[in-house]
Amino acid sequence: MSALDAIPVTTEVASGNVEPLLHEIRHALKRLANGEKGTVIDLKRLPLAPGEEEKIEAVLGEGEVRAEVDALGPTQVMETSYPGVWLITHRNAEDSIVARFVEVTDTPELLKSQPADIEYGIQKLETELTN
Amino acid sequence: MMRKDQTLGEYLREQGVSRRGFLKYCSATASLMALPPSAVAQVAEALASAKRPSVIWLSFQECTGCTESLTRSHAPTVESLIFDAISLDYHHTLQAAAGYGAEAAREAAMEENEGEYILVVDGSIPVKNKAFSTIAGISNYDMLVDAASKAYAVVAVGTCAAFGGLPMANPNPTGAVSVSEIVKDKPIINVSGCPPIPVVITGVLAHFLTFGTIPELDALGRPAAFFGQNIHDRCYRRPFYERGQFAETFDDEGARKGWCLYKLGCKGPTTYNACATLKWNQGTSFPIQSGHGCIGCSEPSFWDKGGFYEPISAGMWGSREALLGAAAAGAVLGVGSAIAARSRKKKAIAEEEV
Fold first, then answer.
1. pTM value surpassing 0.90
2. Considering its fold, how many domains does chain B have in total?
3. What are B326-335's pLDDT values in tens digits?
4. I need a labelling partner for B79 at 20 to 30 A (CA). Which of B30, B50, B67, B98 fits?
């Protein structure tokens, strides 16, 4: 136990934003199921009390898919226990979180191969075969 | 380092950044600029063709806290890339050169990028006597007038540049004024705060880099995306205020339970800034989360608005003139308050001595 833990401070603070956010996700999921566009929610824009982001994570849970994208630092892409609800955490090269989103979609955009990268890949493979 | 003839898209590709990496960069940049996630595609399109803008940074009557805020922000990748993507042609605190050589470089950058560069200013400008603050023999006033005349826009970073700040505090010995008191013919973006949140500074530069325009501003010339809502409305302790649960002292039960700090002088209800959501030290915390009320550092004249530990309702009689008027009109109330204040002071001293 650190000296900080010994300070008798209890937190019963709640911003009141966790439940509305979960409802927002529910509404977005219903729209997705009805064939409408996906939704992205920026978690850094919400006033949350200490511990509430962890509470959101705990409620969403972990699903079947986990992926790590290595581009300008690691990005963790995780489907939550609610299919179609993804938690995306962008980190920089120093492993600090630079952005965090809840993405309600069938496949997060970041996991798809991008046309520009495919073009670049074709050129690279052709060069490889020529040599 | 990005070349002047390159677009940002070309530069990132040259650095081995894939389109996927670029999209990540755009997502983080959109978040940085407080744009909705749906704007990422628009940001990607604009950033891919963005050219490297010239930035000239002038520091006047200031404590260097604004530059410290920016450079000590652990430079996450996105912000680093934004700084790689601008040409910081003059910043006398950060650059190695000094004196006439440095000033010649500033003048060359101004000529080369006339009408296109962004002028960033931190610190207020003394006008009582221009010689109170000079750089290489040039007064702050003359340097500002000259540099602003050829700029595209001016970004006043910090409350000193935006509103006069601490140098302007009563009795204002140097006759300090804000940038907007002197520059009248250029767009001015006020990024106030003492210091400003580093992400807000980079967010404004990112907006210019992305769209080549200045962002939407509030009535005080601040970017509405960051200063559009007050601290109180975005504070996670707001529900306690609604329920009337306040900390009365910094060590009572309410303080320990994290109740609202309004009665302890929190200026959140009258302060517009993004601390409650963006927070400080890489999003770790902000004053209210650490148990101290907001002091209102991003508002004009915050230093002369009465005690930091007096509730806002007590500060409504803030100015000396108003206090005199109030004393004449309500002497009985004044005497009562004075006795109460003396009693509080005596009690505090007695407790201190125990």
1. no
2. 2
3. 434 433 333 3
4. B98
